[in-house]
């Protein structure tokens, strides 16, 4: 459960009085998510998500994320814009945290996506990449290829507390993948950068929401699909690659963006990089999540197993 900051009913009612959204009826901390504190808020008029930005979201980046959501929503994609208050402000402060009131979208995130659901979700990613073609905002990827070594070094030898050998395994993987990283050889774009199944809301096989744009940034466009491939095509523990789902992702995406020969040639490297990125952030969180935070930490080793699927050369100690 991701609630790092508690908001009392009184503080929330006071906060909502600055909006034209009706009066508070109920509020519950949301079980999913690891980055921010999220509450499901019902008023006597409507339902909202209240997000307090916590760990990796810098307040200075919020205008980029919110402008991006407005841009993409205006193109007809199902993304949740922030709700303005009575003075037309969308970024607030609550309990000392940056906070936004977000429009609620219906749908559920699937735990075990079928090939048809994966195809629909990847098709939505392709539409998203089409919609950002004329978006002028830019944001460097703070979790991109240049960030891996510094984060690895901040984790240090404590990585071996998670699994013996993890430190050396990751060091070798970073050297191997960074040396092969395509860099400027591939098209760049604004990307979502975290389109896991829990960030896609669905009803049956229809996508009803793309959420959680708080890692969105400018990076290699096909890297977004590679991230999705690592997140959708395996069981939660990182075992059991499902080729039906993996192929469906490529098929769905290519209805909007056929991959170039270069993107195909580099896809395994992009996916391996995604595995390093999520293994590292999960490892850092594993070692540093406050004991009193209501959050379920995610397993870094599940991402090492995925890495070994894409790059069997790296399959060594922690497999
Ligand atoms: N706009 C929204 N509409 C409906 N549910 C949402 C919305 N935003 C977030 N949620 C719910 O809250 C959960 C956590 O949100 P998310 O943005 O993924 O959190 P975090 O940033 O902590 O990862 C989601 O899995 C989803 O259940
Ligand atoms: N998707 C990442 C963690 C980021 O959390 P999210 O809840 O914002 O998607 C992972 O699984 O490691």
What is the typical, i.e. mean, pLDDT? 94
Distance between the termini: 28 Å
Q: What's the name of the CATH homologous superfamily of the largest domain? A: Aminoglycoside phosphotransferase (APH), C-terminal lobe
| Secondary-structure class | alpha+beta
Low-confidence regions: none
Number of domains: 2
Number of strands: 9
Q: Which fold does the CATH topology of the largest domain refer to? A: Aminoglycoside 3'-phosphotransferase, Chain: A, domain 2
Give the CATH architecture of the largest domain: Alpha-Beta Complex
How would you describe the shape? globular
Oligomer designation:
single chain
Largest β sheet strand count, sense and barrel closure? 5 strands, antiparallel
Tell me the name of the CATH class of the largest domain: Alpha Beta
Helix content range: 40-55%
Strand content: 5-15%
Radius of gyration: 20 Å
Organism: Sphingomonas aurea
Protein name: Homoserine kinase
Domain Aminoglycoside phosphotransferase: 27-254
Pfam family, one: APH
What does this 3D model show about the protein?
Its EC number is 2.7.1.39. This is Homoserine kinase. By secondary structure, this protein is an alpha+beta fold. It is 41% helix and 14% strand. The chain contains ten helices and nine strands. Strands 1-2-3-5-4 form a five-stranded antiparallel sheet, with helices on one face. The chain has a two-stranded antiparallel ribbon with strand order 6-9. A two-stranded antiparallel ribbon has the order 7-8. A hairpin with a 2-residue loop joins strand 4 and strand 5 (97-103). The mean pLDDT is 94.
